Amino acid sequence: MQDGDPGRGAVSRIAVVPGDGIGPEVIDPALALFDRLALDVELDVLDHVNAETYLRTGRALTEEDLDRLRGSAAILLGAVGDPRLHDTPYVRSVLTRLRAELDLYANCRPARLWHDRLSPLREEKRRGIDCVIVRENTEGLYSGIGGALGDGTAREVALDVDVSTYHGVSRVLDFAFSVARTSVCVVDKANAVRHGGSLWQRCWREAVARHPEVPARHLYVDAAAMKLVMDPTEFDVIVTNNAHGDILSDLTAGLAGGLGLAASANLNVATGHGLFEPVHGSAPDIAGTGTANPLAAILSAALLIEHLGHPGEAEAVRDAVARVIEHDQVTRDLGGVRSTQEVGAAVLAELR
């Protein structure tokens, strides 16, 4: 999926935010790819952007940090989250803020079955999922608009506003058509969510008219979830709103072997900005044990490499991952016994 601007190749600095928990552990093997592939990049590691900094200073990102991130060719992020900061705006102050500041409106989460044994589906002919969830990334229920009345009382009323704009919906639909190989399916709940659903449907009709060469269809989100489990091979690109995309991309990750293989790209095609991250969280329960799966971070780095205009090198990384999985050189979550570092080393050894 090459959606970056190759013209940005003159800017070779990649900003790296290892983050919290297993983030630094899984990012290290991903960073080793750049040397192995002899890519002409400079790694700018912001290892102070984490929960410890937030606990000490009350903020995780300074304006100087944001300038470094804005000025980079791309951003590679490990994970953010810490149980000590569960009831604070910490995660939103890093990840959500970066998505908003850089206007990273398209969240792409590819799901591909790397080996038949990883699928939970019993019917072999329906196991081969190979699709992309395109999730609108800056609006919807995660926009942060809302509030509460009578907070903490028996009469508390809580409101979270589901925001959809013509501009935001139209551009993410066009993006979905631009990355489609065979088809696009829009997913919504327009039969129950009247106003936002009506806007999505209007924008969808217009997008279909702009892209008549691409087969297109519509599904309600409950039907889409059912069809994904029954036969995920039906789908190429699914485009949907922020909340639906968050949920459906975890479902597709499960159908493809789990979150340990789930990579993602947060993109703005117009500016060329991109933030790449594994979908999994910081997993504090296994941090420091050497058992975290680095393949999602490695596959996220492959998306970044492709974004920077190196599709051949990105495909070489994916081929190496496929061979590592085929040879069962994997961590416990995929049924193996290898450590994080051992899996990273195995990918490097398989790079051709």
Overall description:
The structure is a single chain. The protein is α/β, with parallel strands linked by helices and 352 residues long. Helices cover 39% and strands 18% of the residues. The chain has helices at 23-36, 51-57, 63-70, 90-101, 166-179, 194-210, 221-230, 242-255, 295-307, 311-326, 340-350, and strands at 13-19, 42-45, 74-79, 106-112, 130-136, 146-149, 157-160, 184-188, 216-220, 237-240, 263-267, 274-278. The strands form 2 sheets. The chain has a 10-stranded mixed beta sheet, with helices on both faces. The chain has a two-stranded antiparallel ribbon with strand order 6-7. Strand 6 and strand 7 form a beta hairpin. Helix 7 (221-230) runs parallel beside helix 8 (242-255). The longest helix has 17 residues, at 194-210. Mean pLDDT is 95; it is low at 2-9.
The proportion of residues in beta strands is 15-25%
Secondary-structure element order, N to C: EHEHHEHEEEEHEHEHEHEEHHH
Record field, number of beta strands: 12
Overall pLDDT level: 95
Contiguous helical run count: 11
- The termini sit apart by 20 Å
| Most strands sheet | 10 strands, mixed
Residue share in helices? Answer: 25-40%
Query: Strands across the major sheet, in which order?
Result: 2-1-3-12-11-4-5-10-8-9
Q: Uncertain segments of ≥5 residues (pLDDT<50)?
A: 2-9
- Overall morphology: globular
Radius of gyration, whole Å? 20 Å
